[in-house]
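User: Hi! I have a protein structure encoded as tokens and I'd like to know what sequence might fold into it. I'm fairly new to this, so please keep things simple.
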């Protein structure tokens, strides 16, 4: 083989700056070993050598020009001492990268798996190319992948080298030993994956469990009980509707008698059906709390799997997963009781599958099936996340196509057909939802709230990036400027992003990652903020698309945190320096005294870890603050079952309540014995006149300025048979008495107005949508009741 310091002739330019057709490449001082050379940090070029009678080719590092992908250079290997084809595989360097081995992919010694043709390069070295010379490694020039096969490739080459002195039989025994070692390494890797899941679950239970574990069936993890009440209702509604063979997607249980299209409300049918057994045995509050506690852990874990795939390192991936699963954007939705927006664990899983497709480690047929299942599941969790996930995937694909090398562009183009096939499978699986969503009246948001989820509204909103909200641990240290603030990044995390941009600026993959982050931040600003006096924000380009027209652009920060998780993992996985290489063995490889030369060991930069730990500490949830759990008070009228003596099954009831969050939960507690004239679903059915007024009345909000004509119109439109007034001031009770003209029954701390057929006569001619047998035998009669004029 060539001596160290000699030149190998190449027939193409080594870099974009090489002008001549022939360039000389120096052969580095590489010690060939017969043992796995990966040290867990990819301290040197992975090399596998066997004794070969036929001189194997030696692949020299190929420089990646900025415009085209240079092929690997093959030179004849001289002085190969022995028998069968092994190879030397070296990653090609980016034209913009400097140093012979400073930016090699990070290898994980525990990442070896029995999967053939595993990818070689990591996302942290996404522009380097590897070319297989023998059967040890595979070609991966797309710029995406992992280093998890480095240890396996080196082990295979080592086994071949050891077969030199011991013959064919010994080589077969070594092969069996390698197979067992490979399975052992795969088992260790899976153990690490399970350990990561256990750590994330423990973190979620440790931070939020003390607020809810002792009262899982009576309280729920949501500071805003009105938003959380819809999901509690949903956990009861979907199993009930399916078991009673009534329309579950377009429900007449609320906004009766016309009903409401639940596909445009965040009713999470997938989790509600999956947890039906838990709901039946422990109640909807219990199921809601289980989902809330599991959401951060699942999101962090799937983000960890993505980061582990890209880096091949356990600890950097573990920390990266934390930045996504426990990010302020996700915890903000957690605190508001939005499971449809906290169950985002499928987003990193979809990205993971796309990475596997681009690197060639998964068959396209399996990819289409698995991604189709993931997308279909997301449709049954929440359409808004599905729509924004599609938008973000398209944006990232375009950025990668624009920044990446030619081979990556070819792979992205080849991925279009499998991704389209996956979307087709998802559309078929969710066809009942999609058909109802676009053929029945939609929900129109009549009442708008100027929250940050709709984007920036003034220049002061940009301070949200550095000042936390109430769900973040440093909230009280900044004067409590904000309430909800999903945009918080924190100064240490911003410093990490800036340093990543500086230190990784020569890598195309890093540029693509940073460009995607910037584009998503720009989209999250929405279209309400005027930039330089003009409405030029990019969200206007997508706001007219289906579903995205009702999406809230400020929630795109969740995807920003997924990119930040990958960025942090890649930055931590990148070694900062390495020790001096040890002296090579003075004996030839055929000698029994020959020992492999230890590769230089790379050590992480302490400053990087300190900055990342500080950034993680500043975004911790404010778990010590009492903002996480809420109780919805019950009324004896419903809790004791007395309501069955005064209401008929399927009767339309209008609940006027000072607490607008209770009527959906009360209906769910009665197993939908009655129908609701309204209900909180985030809007009104399309076509409702005076939408803001009707939405307010549907939520049970009657104020002294509400006119009698508006109340009568609402009663007639919804064919109300009874009105229940709870915890309202006396003047509201008197107003209802004057409008209805009937006396009330004071029962179980509520005032019940039974209207008879005054407004509900048209409904009596129709078959009730919800039939429920009236079981009155065991219901106690009220001890006394008061009638008032």
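Assistant: Happy to help. Inverse folding works backwards from shape to sequence: for each of the 789 positions I chose a residue that suits the local structure. Here it is:
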């Amino acid at each position: 083989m060539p001596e160290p310091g000699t030149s190998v002739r190449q027939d193409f330019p080594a870099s974009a700056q090489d002008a001549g057709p022939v360039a000389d490449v120096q052969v580095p001082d590489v010690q060939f070993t017969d043992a796995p050379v990966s040290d867990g940090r990819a301290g040197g070029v992975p090399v596998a050598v066997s004794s070969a009678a036929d001189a194997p080719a030696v692949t020299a590092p190929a420089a990646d020009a900025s415009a085209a992908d240079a092929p690997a250079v093959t030179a004849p290997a001289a002085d190969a001492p022995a028998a069968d084809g092994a190879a030397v595989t070296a990653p090609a360097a980016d034209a913009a990268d400097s140093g012979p081995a400073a930016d090699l992919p990070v290898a994980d010694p525990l990442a070896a798996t029995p999967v053939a043709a595993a990818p070689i390069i990591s996302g942290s070295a996404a522009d380097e190319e590897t070319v297989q010379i023998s059967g040890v490694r595979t070609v991966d020039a797309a710029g995406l992948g992992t280093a998890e096969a480095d240890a396996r490739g080196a082990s295979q080459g080592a086994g071949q080298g050891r077969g030199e002195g011991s013959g064919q039989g010994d080589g077969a025994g070594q092969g069996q030993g390698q197979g067992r070692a490979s399975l052992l390494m795969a088992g260790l890797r899976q153990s690490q994956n399970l350990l990561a899941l256990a750590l994330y679950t423990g973190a979620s239970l440790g931070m939020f469990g003390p607020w809810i574990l002792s009262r899982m069936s009576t309280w729920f993890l949501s500071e805003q009980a009105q938003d959380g009440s819809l999901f509690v209702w949903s956990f009861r509604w979907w199993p009930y509707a399916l078991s009673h063979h009534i329309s579950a997607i377009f429900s007449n249980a609320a906004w009766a008698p016309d009903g409401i299209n639940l596909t445009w409300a965040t009713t999470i049918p997938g989790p509600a059906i999956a947890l039906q057994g838990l709901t039946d045995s422990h109640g909807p509050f219990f199921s809601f709390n289980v989902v809330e506690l599991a959401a951060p852990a699942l999101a962090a874990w799937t983000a960890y799997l993505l980061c582990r795939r890209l880096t091949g390192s356990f600890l950097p991936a573990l920390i990266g997963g934390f930045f996504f699963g426990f990010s302020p954007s996700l915890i903000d939705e957690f605190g508001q009781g939005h499971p449809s927006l906290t169950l985002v664990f499928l987003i990193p899983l979809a990205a993971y599958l796309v990475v596997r497709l681009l690197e060639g480690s998964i068959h396209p047929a399996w990819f289409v099936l698995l991604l189709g299942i993931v997308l279909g599941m997301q449709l049954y969790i929440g359409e808004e996340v599905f729509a924004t996930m599609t938008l973000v995937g398209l944006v990232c694909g375009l950025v990668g196509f624009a920044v990446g090398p030619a081979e990556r562009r070819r792979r992205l183009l080849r991925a279009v057909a499998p991704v389209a096939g996956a979307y087709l499978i998802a559309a078929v699986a969710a066809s009942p939802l999609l058909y109802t969503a676009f053929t029945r009246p939609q929900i129109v948001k009549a009442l708008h709230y100027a929250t940050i989820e709709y984007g920036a509204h003034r220049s002061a909103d940009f301070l949200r990036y550095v000042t936390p909200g109430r769900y973040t641990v440093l909230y009280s240290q900044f004067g409590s400027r904000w309430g909800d603030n999903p945009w918080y990044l924190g100064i240490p995390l911003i410093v990490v992003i800036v340093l990543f941009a500086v230190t990784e600026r020569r890598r195309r993959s890093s540029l693509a990652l940073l460009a995607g982050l910037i584009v998503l931040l720009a989209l999250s600003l929405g279209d309400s903020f005027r930039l330089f006096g003009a409405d030029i924000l990019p969200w206007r380009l997508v706001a007219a698309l289906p579903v995205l027209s009702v999406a809230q652009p400020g929630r795109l920060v969740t995807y920003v945190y997924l990119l930040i998780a990958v960025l942090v993992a890649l930055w931590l996985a990148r070694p900062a320096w390495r020790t001096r290489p040890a002296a090579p063995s003075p004996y030839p490889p055929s000698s029994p005294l020959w020992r492999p030369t230890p590769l230089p060991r790379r050590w992480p930069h302490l400053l990087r870890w300190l900055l990342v730990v500080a950034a993680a500490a500043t975004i911790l949830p404010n778990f010590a603050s009492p903002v996480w759990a809420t109780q919805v008070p019950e009324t004896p009228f419903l809790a004791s079952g007395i309501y069955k003596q005064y209401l008929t099954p399927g009767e339309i009831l209008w609940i006027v309540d000072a607490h607008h969050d209770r009527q959906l939960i009360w209906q769910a507690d009665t197993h939908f014995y009655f129908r609701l004239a309204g209900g909180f679903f985030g809007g009104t059915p399309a076509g409702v006149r005076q939408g803001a007024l009707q939405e307010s009345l549907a939520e049970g909000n009657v104020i002294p300025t509400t006119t009698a004509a508006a109340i009568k119109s609402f009663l007639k439109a919804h064919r109300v048979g009874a009105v229940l007034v709870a915890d309202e001031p006396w003047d509201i009770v008197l107003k209802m008495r004057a409008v209805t003209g009937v006396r009330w029954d004071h029962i179980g701390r509520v005032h019940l107005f039974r209207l008879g057929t005054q407004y509900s006569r048209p409904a009596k001619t129709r078959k009730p949508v919800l039939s429920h047998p009236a079981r009155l035998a065991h219901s106690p009669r009220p001890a006394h009741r008061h009638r008032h004029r």
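A useful reference point when you look it over: Residues 1-167, 763-789 have pLDDT under 50 and may be disordered. Feel free to ask if any position seems puzzling.
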